[in-house]
UniProtKB/TrEMBL annotation:
Keywords: Carbohydrate metabolism, Glycosidase, Hydrolase, Polysaccharide degradation, Xylan degradation
Catalytic activity: Hydrolysis of (1->2)-alpha-D-(4-O-methyl)glucuronosyl links in the main chain of hardwood xylans
Subunit structure: Homodimer.
EC number: 3.2.1.131
Name of this protein: Xylan alpha-1,2-glucuronidase
Annotated source species: Pontibacter diazotrophicus
GO cellular component, one term: extracellular region
Length: 682
């Protein structure tokens, strides 16, 4: 039946493939569960509902094994049966959140075991096991051990208290402050379930452009209600802390982080929060950026600000995620360099429970950016990653963009901080600098739209974020494969072409928006559609001409020695690569170099022609995506099919809009014709 995508990737419809169904039905006869903690009850229900749905028959739950084909789940503490299996040595390495999936004989009966050290580990293992069935994997001789590579896997909601969502394209905020705390919308539980299914274990409820009111008692009781609803699913709640809150809601004259009264105010406020929410995660802060207050107001450093809050949450084991997205129009320097210049000197000055939250690139979630030079540059500080899941700069609510390739490209980038192989992923997961405390954040794309994310395919980015946060070594292709099978169908005729379409989708957008390292050409302020001509705004760093620097000689931002020298912020091997026009990967060419229009690119074409080819290729790929999608008609429900088909048609128009606008605009500088054989822009 149609649900317009509400169930996300958690569809437990009866398996259609008869042979698969038969095999699973033989192998899986009952669920054996002991223990009744809230988390175990959630896991038990998931397993029962999942199996019953997928197998098309009621699968009973019992306390002990009554037949072959039992699925036994639990921890040594919750289940005597699990304890009796003597798995201690195998369980040890999977830690607090990991799990084992094993096929084993118990008293001569072939059984499947989902074992963990903790209840939430059992829940994660349950979802993994169900995923195996949903994707038609062989489950006859399981021997899986899985544990997350990153400790805190957190969604950032840019949700305002009036329920608008900054950069949200999927309706309004899920948090219904008006009806909280008394009314717990089923949607909160479905949200928590979806997150748990991909290992997300934290959520920042409020916008980084923060409203201090959420820290008042009136709101805290509502936040508590949400925290209570999410807790069984292993999800901790965090809030954004507005730096000036002591003045706005505390009646103080200052918010100076070195003022003892301000410090005392935050301690007291924090204690109050923990009195409602004993496992409150901590604070996320945007300070001194885009109009937000911060330590700069008192001539203090980012570390002074972060440490004040860190000291307040430390007695409760809370953390502070302090954003590095700090830049100012009053700083007369390339925006690319500002966060690095501000934070690098503070390396080692942050408390142990502070993570500096760094966007993947130095500017702002562009369709493509080279990795942020801070990664690897602060070995004595914990750095966490911030990705944007919502598509602010990637076509917003109408474009199909599968973002695993973007996230992977950044995570796999080599910083050379400690020689070759010092990838961004190793900085983030803590292995490079031996940090136990590690975190990754994704700016959510979730809202009240029936399908949660607006575009059906945007669900894949929520899914991807969770899967990569758990294990960044999974390939883009594997994630797409899983997601398609769970969300739509296992039929090869659907899976293969749709996977190809997804895997090409990000590059297509880069091509029709900002090829060859161009960036920030979007419409002013809303960032929707092309605006390469944007200039003369109150802030130069919010215009497009600032970034592309096109003139009759060429195009691109010179960030080498002859320009802003931002390349100097990278480690020497990277510097040498990005800084040398001959060695710079072409995808970053105009990010780092101002390049003559007749410069010969890798294809042999001159730069202007290559630009025209890329823009055109972007549009062509969208047209191929449309054709691909047309071939799968009838293989899935009409609702979702039509939804995607209509949006692809919109995307094709928008891709053309981008191509035409950019080529016609840049042509006023290059003064060269569109190469023969390419569609003329109109
Ligand atoms: O990308 C920019 C967005 C702002 C956002 C800011 C940030 C929340 O345009 O809307 O504000 O980044 O990340 O702080």
């Amino acid at each position: 039946h149609a649900d317009d995508g509400y169930r996300l990737w958690q569809r437990y419809d009866k398996i259609e493939d008869a042979a698969k169904l038969n095999g699973y039905q033989q192998a899986l006869a009952e669920v054996v569960f002991e223990g009744n903690s809230p988390t175990l009850l959630v896991a038990q229900k998931e397993l029962k509902d999942g199996l019953s749905g997928l197998l098309g028959k009621a699968v009973p739950v019992s306390q002990r094994i009554t037949q072959a084909g039992a699925v036994v789940a639990g921890t040594p503490a919750s289940s005597a049966l699990i304890k009796s299996l003597g798995l201690e040595n195998r369980l040890k390495p999977v830690g607090d959140e990991g799990y084992l999936l094993l096929t084993t004989d118990i008293n001569g009966r072939k059984s499947t075991v989902i074992a963990a050290n903790t209840d939430v580990g059992v829940l994660y293992g349950t979802f993994h096991f169900l995923r195996l069935l949903q994707t038609h994997q062989d489950i006859n001789s399981l021997s899986v051990a899985s544990a997350p590579k990153i400790k805190h896997r957190v969604l950032n909601h840019w949700d305002n208290l009036d329920r608008t969502v900054e950069r949200g394209y999927a309706g309004f905020s899920l948090w219904d402050w008006h009806r909280l705390p008394g009314y717990i919308d089923q949607r909160y539980l479905d949200y928590a379930r979806a997150n748990a299914s991909i290992g997300i274990n934290g959520t920042v409820l409020t916008n980084v452009n923060a409203n201090a009111l959420v820290l008042t008692k009136e709101y805290l009781v509502k936040v508590k209600a949400l925290a209570d609803a999410f807790r069984p699913y292993g999800i901790k709640v965090y809030l954004t802390a507005r730096f000036s809150a002591p003045m706005e809601i505390g009646g103080m004259k200052t918010a100076d982080p070195l003022d003892p009264q301000v410090q005392a105010w935050w301690k007291e406020k924090t204690n109050e929060i923990y009195s409602y929410i004993p496992d409150f995660g901590g604070f996320l802060v945007k300070a001194d950026s885009e109009g937000q207050p911060g330590p700069h107001n008192y001539k203090r450093t980012q570390a002074d600000g972060a440490n004040m809050l860190a000291d307040a949450v430390a007695p409760h084991n809370g953390i502070v995620m302090w954003r590095a997205f700090v830049y100012s129009e009053h700083t007369p320097d390339d925006r690319h360099k500002q966060a690095f210049n501000e934070f690098k000197p503070l390396d080692g000055k942050f408390r142990d429970n502070v993570l500096v939250q760094v966007k993947n690139g130095a500017i702002d979630f562009q369709p493509r950016e080279p990795f942020h030079p801070l990664f690897g540059a602060m070995p004595n500080t914990k750095l966490m990653m911030e990705f944007q899941i919502t598509q602010e700069y990637l076509g917003q609510g109408t474009n199909l963009a599968y973002l695993a390739p973007l996230y992977k490209e950044v995570l796999e980038s080599d910083t050379y901080a400690k020689g070759k192989g010092s990838t961004v992923a190793k900085v983030v997961d803590g292995t490079l600098d031996n940090n136990k405390l590690s975190a990754i954040a994704g700016v959510s794309n979730i809202g009240t739209d029936r399908n949660w994310t607006g575009h059906q395919f945007a669900q894949s980015n929520w899914y991807t974020f969770g899967r990569l946060a758990w294990d960044h070594s999974i390939s883009s292709e594997e994630i797409a494969d899983e997601w398609i099978k769970m969300t739509f169908t296992n039929k090869d005729k659907f899976v293969d072409p749709v996977k190809t379409m997804m895997l090409n989708s990000h590059e297509a957008i880069v091509n029709y928006m900002t090829p060859l390292g161009l960036h920030h050409l979007m419409g002013w302020s809303h960032h929707y559609g092309p605006g390469p001509w944007i200039k003369d705004k109150p802030r130069a760093d919010w215009t497009s001409v600032y970034y592309h620097q096109a003139d009759e000689n060429g195009i691109g931002f010179d960030r080498t020695k002859t320009g802003s020298n931002a390349v100097a912020q990278y480690f020497p091997p990277v510097q040498k690569q990005f800084g040398n026009i001959k060695k710079c990967p072409e995808k970053y060419l105009l990010w780092f170099h101002h390049v003559p229009w007749d410069y010969k690119t890798n294809s042999g074409r001159i730069l202007w022609d290559e630009l025209a080819y890329r823009y055109t290729a972007g549009v062509d790929t969208v047209r191929q995506m449309q054709q691909t999608w047309n071939t799968v008609e009838g293989m899935i429900d009409e609702e979702r099919f039509n939804h995607v088909k209509m949006l692809l048609a919109v995307q094709e128009q928008e891709a053309k809009w981008w191509r035409d606008a950019c080529l016609l605009y840049f042509q006023t500088f290059s003064k060269r014709p569109i190469p023969q054989g390419l569609e003329e822009p109109e």
